[in-house]
Design goal:
single chain; 116 residues; mainly alpha; 4 helices
Length: 116
């Protein structure tokens, strides 16, 4: 099956749908219906809450920084039980998808490339 072209950047929901359905870098975990809708709605809200280049860039940076601090905190506590490892794995999947999709919007709408 040939994947369709990415929709126009003006249609945010269709772009998000495309990434979650067709981008090979997005984990299949997010294609499960409940996960799909949850991450899609989060990203739509992220875009609504950050309607310009500066706020979107700052938001993406804050998400990344929070993720790194959380990992550091977990590693300092040496939390390695199975539940924590699963939570970290899911957090990484969601973060990866958000960074990929929000970074795409940042690039296409504002011509700003993520540098981290």
């Amino acid at each position: 099956m040939t994947k369709p072209n990415i929709p126009s950047i003006e249609n945010e929901e269709m772009v998000i749908d495309w990434f979650l359905k067709y981008d090979e870098r997005i984990d299949k975990f997010l294609q499960e219906p409940s996960n799909f809708e949850k991450i899609k709605n989060e990203i739509i809200e992220n875009l609504k809450d950050n309607p310009d280049a500066n706020s979107l860039r700052s938001f993406i940076q804050n998400v990344w920084d929070t993720y790194r601090m959380t990992l550091r905190h977990i590693s300092e506590k040496k939390a390695t039980n199975e539940g924590v490892e699963k939570d970290i794995f899911i957090m990484e999947i969601v973060l990866s998808a958000k960074m990929r999709i929000l970074g795409y919007f940042l690039l296409k709408k504002y011509n700003i490339q993520l540098d981290f």
